[in-house]
Specification:
Oligomer: single chain
Helix content: over 70%
GO biological process, one term: lipopolysaccharide biosynthetic process
Organism: Myxacorys almedinensis A
Main location: membrane
Radius of gyration: 19 Å
Shape: globular
Number of strands: 4
InterPro entries: Glycosyl_transferase_4 (IPR000715), PNAcMuramoyl-5peptid_Trfase_CS (IPR018480)
Largest sheet: 2 strands, antiparallel
Number of domains: 1
Structural class: mainly alpha
Pfam families: Glycos_transf_4
């Protein structure tokens, strides 16, 4: 079964390679130093994204070599290749930033260029939903900026949420699992395989990244994960051309989307640049309210799981309502614990 093979192989490669990459990072001095804005108290290797990228890439190559992707029609094939190659490019942009500290302007220009090429290759948001009239087909002049904003925005949203041990990896892993099930339900097996490999890589990385973390994923990992999730959402769900399917990626990834949007609006309201880092993210606010590191992370996990379960229920998946009820119970329990703990 290609889906299980992609998940397990990706997780296995990440599990084996992460300690090796950590040793290389320590020897080369490629570490994330503590400062007033960051939570960690000692220098941490920030190359964990190399392990995630390697695991996902190896898994996809093996599954492809074994014929797991089947025979794709030309339109689907171009989208799959665009997501794969675009993910590689976003990973390299992030890795260059981890090693050489690129300027925000340089990173943004490169990301926009790669996202535009992905759009040209078939990763396109062609429809929006209108509650009154259903789907609205977008002209190319509007589809291009919407798609670029989605791809670049999600890459940076995952990077921005990577502020606590295990947070970005866990949120991304949960989202990838939900994305896998929904793509499979929507009849998009190629996109489901990519999501399965990404889920294996991110969840496997938690062995070394959950609190107390031994290594960080860095910008390379965050950009790769964010772009790949966004790309899979387009080729696996938005391309299904139904009112429900078009909405699903935004529901599944609601937590990082809303966190990023709230931070940008708050910075603009205070007259600050939206690109200047601060401690206004949800995880910072939870820590300031008195929550422990782990409880803050687990609460955001439960929010992500709840949003994903809502997406599965809305999609009409078998047992989708049961998943939503179960996730609501989990969210209620963690919310109760947060209420007890918060100042």
């Amino acid at each position: 079964m290609p889906f299980l093979a992609a998940f397990l192989l990706s997780a296995f490669v990440v599990f084996l390679s992460t300690p090796v990459i950590r040793k290389i990072g320590l020897r080369s001095g490629l570490v994330d130093a503590p400062n007033s804005r960051k939570v960690h108290q000692r220098p941490m290797v920030r190359l964990g994204g190399v392990a995630i990228f390697t695991g996902v890439l190896v898994a996809l190559l093996v599954v492809w070599w074994a014929g797991g992707f089947g025979v794709l029609n030309p339109k689907d094939e171009s989208g799959v290749w665009a997501v794969a190659l675009g993910g590689i490019a976003f990973f390299l942009i992030g890795l260059a930033d981890d090693v050489f500290n690129l300027s925000p302007k340089t990173r943004l220009i490169l990301q926009i260029a790669i996202a535009s090429l992905a759009w040209q290759s078939g990763v396109q948001i062609d429809f929006l939903t209108n509650p009154a009239s259903g789907l609205i087909q977008l002209p190319d002049w509007f589809s291009l900026p919407i798609t670029v904003i989605w791809l670049v925005g999600m890459a940076n949203a995952i990077n921005w949420i990577d502020g606590l041990d295990g947070l970005a990896a866990g949120v991304s892993g949960i989202a990838a699992v939900v994305m896998f099930w929904t793509c499979l339900f929507m009849g998009q097996p190629a996109a489901a395989i990519i999501a399965a490999a990404l889920a294996g890589g991110t969840l496997g990385f938690l062995r070394y990244n959950f609190n107390p973390a031994q290594i960080f994923m860095g910008d390379g990992g965050a950009y790769f994960i964010g772009f790949t999730l966004a790309g899979v959402g387009v080729i696996g769900l938005v391309k299904s051309v139904t009112t429900v399917a078009v909405l699903l990626p935004y529901v599944i990834l609601a937590v990082p989307i809303l966190d990023m949007s709230a931070v940008i609006l708050d910075r603009l309201r205070r007259g600050k640049s939206p690109f200047v880092a601060d401690k206004g993210h949800l995880h910072h606010r939870l820590l300031n309210a008195g929550l422990s590191h782990r409880l803050a992370v687990l609460f955001i996990y439960s929010l992500t799981l709840w949003a994903g379960s809502l997406a599965m229920a809305v999609a009409g998946m078998p047992s989708g309502l049961g998943y939503a009820i179960g996730a609501t119970v989990i969210l209620s329990l963690t919310s109760w614990q947060v209420w007890r703990t918060a100042r």
